[in-house]
Amino acid sequence: MVPTNYYLILSAMIFTIGAVGVLSRRNALIIFMCVEMMLNSVNLTLIAFSRQWDNLNGQAFVFIVMAVAAAEVAVGLAILIAHTHHSKSTNIDDVNVMKW
Fold first, then answer.
1. Helix, strand, coil shares, percent, the chain, to 5
2. How many folded domains does the chain comprise?
């Protein structure tokens, strides 16, 4: 049986990679993928604690996080497609054009 600490360390590493990707990239698709990595690392943490405490509450929260992630992707990709259609670029610096 793998200790819970290993799952938490892996989750922290995945979350850090996602956070660095969000803060350092300019491409909207890469930022969306990094946000999804961060949400999945939170899911891994919830499952690890759920397994450690023999409790199903963490697994229920994972389904909620997955539903929020799916809604975020749907809305985010719709906005990204509209922005790309308007500006022919996925660069985040050009998003202020959406105000007009």
1. 85, 0, 15
2. 1
